[in-house]
Structure formats: structure tokens, C-alpha cells
Amino acid sequence: MTRVSAGARIHVGFQNLSLSHERLYGGVGFALDSPRVTIEATPADSVRCGDTLVAEYATAVCDLLNVPGVDLTVEERLPRHVGLGSGTQIALATLTAVAEAHDREPRVRERAPALGRGGRSGVGVATFERGGFVVDAGHPTTRFTTDTPEDGSWTVPPVVVRHDLPESWRVLLVYPDADAGRSGETEDASMRAAVERADPGLANELAGILTRRLLPAVAAGECEPFGQAVTAFDRRNGTWYTDAQGGVYRPPAGALVDELEASPALSGVGQSSWGPAVYGITDASRERAAREAGEAALDAVGVAGSVKTVALANTGARIE
After folding, report:
1. For residue range 10-55, what is the model confidence (pLDDT) as tens digits?
2. Average pLDDT of the chain?
3. Are 166 and 48 in contact (CB under 8 A)?
4. How far is it, in rounded angstroms, from Cα 243 to Cα 31?
5. Contact by Cβ (8 Å): 102, 43
6. pLDDT at 250
7. What is the DSSP string of the chain?
8. 187 or 285, greater pLDDT
9. Is residue 181 over pLDDT 60?
10. Residue 1 pLDDT > 70
11. CB 103 within 8 Å of CB 80
12. How far apart are CA 55 and CA 77, in angstroms?
């Protein structure tokens, strides 16, 4: 039996969506220790799994590896379509579990495109591999235009920066009861529209925030500057999508971010990917106050939801 467990990720944003620059996308994000997806696998003569999505990925993986089947049990599930990268982590955990159960090398980075992962951001693949804070190189604009190539016809963008983050740092997660974030064809259409309208000057602003504020704060392990830089990058990144999501942040994330920005318990805030999950940067000494700020923000905005604080992850998926 093989057991694979992978944590969620925060996607702070993309460096560039304009076709006027040489490289498109370029994801920025970091790994969380929880929530997690955990899958157990044993070899079998067919695919057996009670989770429909995992069963679909397992069938594709068995074809890729030329193995007969696998018996899978999903012990923990990541919340889907809330902005925490569940699709990539589920796909890669399934790939790894099936491969390891059959004594095969998963070759995650190589095989992720065949499962439809890593087509824009490489952050989810990179955090599955090694955790930490990650910046990827994006894709050449000559290869990726407004239409994403067919599954399997790209390579996952290489990692250009990867840093461990301090063990004392924490992330506040606020899940408002709201519609699921964009995925699949809806996400593809939204991204296509954003790329077609993208202002090339915004990429230059984001590059300045990344190189002069965010990366120095990561390298120095400074929580306050890191949070402030994350807020600036996330907010500017959100302007790529104002038409698609009705503002820099989608409702009700925007109102929650506004409320949380006023809290001294948090160094920075943002919306992860398409949301609706909102996150905040804090540390172990302010965990309780951060959770209280999250509850107060939900009350102030008048929406139901849940709040938790989680640790960061400086290692990749756990394989037993």
C-alpha cells in the first residue's frame, strides 16, 4: 500500500498576461501544510475508487503507466474550486499514488501536462514537488497565446525562484459561503478575455513589486514586508480580471479583504486565484487574533463562512 498526502497552495498571481512581453503568465505562490488531499493506493486489476474525480485521474494514469488498475481510498479531500489549487494537487497525488503502488517513478513534472496540469501556472506542480515560496518562468508567448494548447502538448514552466518560509509564519484562510471559483471552460474563457485586454504596463509594475519588495522580504524572512508586498502584488494582479470578476476581487472577497486589511493581526491579505477563499499573512504569536479578525470580517460583510489558520509547508508531498 502507498499513501500520498499533499497540501494546498496560495496563488498570489501572475507576473504577466500581456502578449506584448516575451513570456506569459509566470505564477507566484506558496505551499500550505493544510488543508490536504490524502490518497491510499494498492495495485488492482481495474480502477476502483469512490471519488469520481480521483477515479478519472486514476484511469488516465493507469493508461499513461500501462498498468492494469488500482484500488484507491481518499482519506482527506481538499475543498474544490475555492482558489487553493485542489485540481493540481488531487491529480498529482493520484499520479504519485498509482505510480508508487506499481513501483514506478511518478515523474510528476513530466507527466502533469498529460493530466491537464501546469498549463498556465507552474506553482501547483512546484509546491507538490518541494513546497516553499515559488516563482515560475511562465511560458513563451510564441507558444501560449489566448488559446491554451491541447493537454499534454506543453511542459510545466521551470522554477526560477524557490525559498523556504519561516516556520513561525501562519496563513489565515477565510472561506465565505459563495459560488465556487472559476474552473474548466469558464476559467479558460475568462483567461482568454483577460489576455486579450491585458495592459503591458501592468506587468512592469508587478515586476517591480516582485523584485524590489516581495523577493527581498522572502529572502530576509521578514513577515511584515512580505505581507505588505503580497497585498500589493495580489491587488495589482487582480486588475487583470476586473471585467471577469466584477472588480479587483470577486464579491464577497473584496469586502472581506477591505475588512481584514485594517487588522493589526495580519501583515497582508489577498484573494487566492479565483477565490472565493481569502487569505492573510500572520505568525504564530498572532494566530488567535487573526482568526478573530476573520470571524469579524465575515460578520461585518454579512456572509456566513469558516475561518482557520494553517502552517506553511517547506517540503513537498508526503509519500509513505
Report:
1. 999 999 999 889 999 999 999 999 999 999 999 999 999 999 999 9
2. 93
3. no
4. 29
5. yes
6. 86
7. -EEEEEEEEEEEEEEE--TTSSEEEEEEEEEEEEEEEEEEEEE-SSEE-S-HHHHHHHHHHHHHHT---EEEEEEE-PPTTSSS-HHHHHHHHHHHHHHHHTT----HHHHGGGGT-SSS--HHHHHHHH-SEEEE--EETTT--SSPPPTTSS-PPPEEEEE---TTEEEEEEEES-PPPP-HHHHHHHHHHHHHH--HHHHHHHHHHIIIIIHHHHHHT-HHHHHHHHHHHHHHHHGGGHHHHTSSS-TTHHHHHHHHHT-TT-SEEEE-TT-S-EEEEEEGGGHHHHHHHHHHHHHHHT--EEEEEEEB-SS--EE-
8. 285
9. no
10. yes
11. no
12. 14
Q: How far apart are CA 89 and CA 82, in angstroms?
A: 13
Q: Cell 506542480 maps to which residue?
A: 125
Cell, residue 45: 486489476
In this prediction, residue 190 has a pLDDT band, given cuts at 50, 70 and 90, of low
Task: Work out the end-to-end distance of the chain between its first and last CA atoms, rounded to an integer number of angstroms.
Answer: 8
**pLDDT single digits (tens) 109-138:** 999 999 999 888 999 999 999 999 999 999
